[in-house]
């Protein structure tokens, strides 16, 4: 291999004295060659993002700081550079693509101006030349209608469009190295596939090297030349991507690969004749108002959707963002009021009921939310949060708290966790708490809205296995909302595919995966990252 673009030699990054371990990164060594994509994969807390921030001098000093090793780039040790030199390097020779573009972009500034700022700081180009370069970059990342895009604010663009803007900013000065920190984690599977293809395409066209940070081995299989696996701040395995993915040596790597959701569909169980949940011609329309309160635009988020869910069965509702799947879920549990149609639970119609009339039915259906931290009261102890539902239903406080402790044990947490607050738990633990809260009122139906999309692959598997076990133990039915067909295959026997508020295909998981009929379903299956490698797994 030619001279490496970047050499990390024995990098050590210290954590504050109050942390649960001494080092975020411990004696890590890694090289990235010219025009090479190296993926660093690991769970949250593995140190992979801290390593990326150390390269660009973005560590939150003085509490988190590099205490050993070297980071060599173009003959200079980045750890020894003055802040002014480092500032000139950022966005120029080294660029970064962040995980969440909405927080990386200024919400008060048009995106074209934000791209132009990079050129203004690092080059002597005149305003006309900068403007031309901005339009060229927007075209390079395959965004249509460049004039409209550059004059838009971040909130006026979709998640995939915002991520393309961040990529355009990173590519503005044709950097030698791009650090991509989980750039596809928050995206739908089809958008994710487009972004991965775009990064690979632009990397080859511009001869750029890429350090790609991820927790998804499907992404690794799709894009990497080489891969390094990190755990607790250390590299436990590294090598060419085929060797690591097909013949892993470290037990930790084997465990991560085993946790990757597969594409082997679940077999359908024989269910009861009478369904638990019936949805008939459900409609939900959102109307945005313009000046003087006049209706300016209406969107049919859910358009005459009908479905049934049997007792002790599971049904996945799959689609991209904007397909209407989450709105459908919220209408079913009564968090949104539909404009038409009806929802029946156990044969009883619950649409059109007032909040007080709906209360007796809420114990039969509970929701597990995508973001457990946002759905848990930060000022309440966990035991009180779980016990609240039963107490509203008339259970005494003492009994409800005792049952909350039992539920915590059931979902894999210690009973004494009842005395702690939400911020004291990890994301996976908070999701377990969300599941315990849903189970507290002994429901018949669980509606899970993207409950694992923000979790590491190993934690994701634990939560999915837990939902499976609890569904069978409690005799529950489950409506599972997801954009990931791999997850749908893991937990559900039946699937409906939604696009733009309409169900375009439905059937058993086995039939949908073996013989998808609709072009949209086929596109979702084709977009699964690392599909060929996943299918080769035992």
Textual characterization of the structure:
By secondary structure, the protein is α/β, with parallel strands linked by helices. Among the domains are: 103-172, no CATH class; 365-442, no CATH class. The protein contains 22 helices and 20 strands. The strands form four sheets. It has a six-stranded mixed sheet with strand order 6-7-8-3-9-10, sandwiched between helices. A six-stranded mixed sheet has the order 16-17-18-13-19-20, sandwiched between helices. The chain has a four-stranded antiparallel sheet with strand order 2-1-4-5, covered by helices on one side. Strand 9 and strand 10 form a beta hairpin. Helix 5 (127-140) packs across helix 7 (159-171) and helix 15 crosses helix 16 (397-410). It starts with 5 loop residues before the first strand and ends with a helix. The model has no long low-confidence stretch (mean pLDDT 87).
For the secondary structure, the number of strands is 20
Mean pLDDT, to the nearest integer, reads 87
Strand residues, percent: 15-25%
Number of contiguous helices:
22
Report the biggest beta sheet as strand number plus sense, adding barrel if it closes.
Answer: 6 strands, mixed
> What Rg is obtained from the alpha carbons, in whole angstroms?
25 Å
Query: What strand order characterises the main sheet?
Result: 6-7-8-3-9-10
Shape category: globular
What is the SS-derived class?
A: alpha/beta
Residue ranges: pLDDT <50 for 5 or more in a row? none
